[in-house]
Amino acid sequence: MANNLSTLWSSIIIDELIKSDVTHYYISPGMRNAPLVQSLLQRRDEVSLFLGVDERAQSYRALGNAKATGKTSALICTSGTALANYTPAIIEAKKSATPLIVLSADRPIELATSDANQTINQVHFYGHHILADNCLGAPTTEICPQVIRNTVDHLIFRSRYPIKGPVHLNIPLREPIDMTEVHIDEDYVERAKSGFKKSFQTKYFPPTQGLSPLAKESIAKIIKDNPKGLLVVGSLPCSLDKEIIKAFIQKLNWPVFLDISSSLKYNYSIRDNIIPTFDHSEVYEQMSRVKPSAIIHLGGRTTSKHYYRFLEEFADIELISVNWSEEKEDPSQNTDYRMICEVDQFCLEMCEHIQPSENPIRINWSEFTQKKCQLIEESPLSYPVISKKIIDQIEDKQSLYIANSTVVRSFDNYLSMESTKDIDIFTNRGVSGIEGLMASALGAAESMNKYMTLVIGDVSFLHDLNSLQLIKDSKTPMCIVLVNNSGGGIFTLLPIAKEEALLPYLTTPHDLTFESAAEQFSIDYIKVTSTSSFEEAFQNAQKKKNTILIEAIVSNEENIEVYNKLKTVKL
């Protein structure tokens, strides 16, 4: 689109992004970004476009897509506060190593520095929350077209290697920003045209991610010398090869503690020598008695803070951490060896160099787990009941997006007695925020050929109400399980609940239900107040695979009582 320099530069940027395999674009409304959007419309057969009113919801939608695909998703917005609304999702993307690129349209420098309408300083806007950024200034023929292209190529490379994460390209555009024709030197147009004929401007080859011979030899020796070790699997991207990791688990033959965010937890049952949880005093004490001599920790952080308490209490345990991350990722401050490697690559290479433990730690958790399951089955509708019923009833090869606070901990603490499920599990555990979860789940669902179930608390739901508009307009169905216990119930489960005057300011209590919200956005709705009605509603959703909001009304007092009873279960 060589109508003017703004449309030409926009065409070059979009063309190079497409050549870099950026195909999902999340567009927020505005005028200054019109040339970028127009360029995308010219290439509509090659890209997927998603329009949304609210920038924050769009950014989380893009985040969910990138979490599911492992590919860089693009956000496009106008100038001013628009890109500020992306900030929470950008922070989550940085902390969870999720690749995104923000394309923020901007006013040219002479307007941005003279307090013109809708202007802020957008250069280096996201600070240390992104991996790289760039701004070439307003379009000019003084900058060659290939400079624009290799700037885009470098940003996309930085979003993927060596660590995945968000990047930012700020794009000041001068008027006209519509299709008005303004003369451009023919020589410049010809140089621009030549770039469209090339398959890429600058091709980046990823760095080697394998283990050195010394690293393999060192880890193999630790495994050999520690037959009574423990394998811990923390947060993992869904794009990793699970089968390779499962092969390593089998070959190692150590007991395993699987975090909910590993997406592997329900591939196993209690019969597979899996540690059910670290967040129960009986399990913690038993693990303290048998105390593994070494721990290999695959992936990122665990949801359980008691696991880190265990590491702090037993600092003499040899701790090997394996993850491809630039973060320190050492809450216990006791890591002895750090392997900078993709987890599946580590598992693949180490499988060839280790022998199974012939005398591993084995603890019979069956009776303990059976008691817990029985207690949950006999309990009123509560978080433990809902998480158990969902895992027991969800179909194989489906997807599950789990919100933070009580929701994620409830799932993290449940493990089946016998049944196993191969389901993709997503969380926003980078910074564990409670906003944007409906949009994140939708973004992930739209990129997968799997039915998505989102489990979310009422405060998180309130934070993301506007995402119901995205869900209404999307062609991708999903099931939203809204657990409504009238406020931030997790604080009532913690010692701070004794501070009665303070508690309302933490829990933000309310008396809302959300049938009218579902009706406003033409989303099927059902309210359930018992275990049997929840089971029926969830089973029907699994059969119909329609978009539905299941609101589970939970008494916070009864929920607390269930948790207190679960604490009393003995080995």
Task: Please tag this protein with its features.
571 residues; six-stranded parallel β-sheet; 22 helices; 39% helix; 17 strands
Would you mind describing this structure in some detail?
The chain has 571 residues and is α/β, with parallel strands linked by helices. Helix content is 39%, strand content 15%. The chain contains 22 helices and 17 strands. Strands 2-1-3-4-6-5 form a six-stranded parallel β-sheet, sandwiched between helices. A six-stranded parallel β-sheet has the order 13-12-14-15-17-16, with helices on both faces. Strands 8-7-9-10-11 form a five-stranded parallel β-sheet, with helices on one face. Helix 1 (5-19) crosses helix 2 (34-42), helix 1 packs parallel to helix 7 (186-197) and helix 14 (383-393) runs parallel beside helix 21.
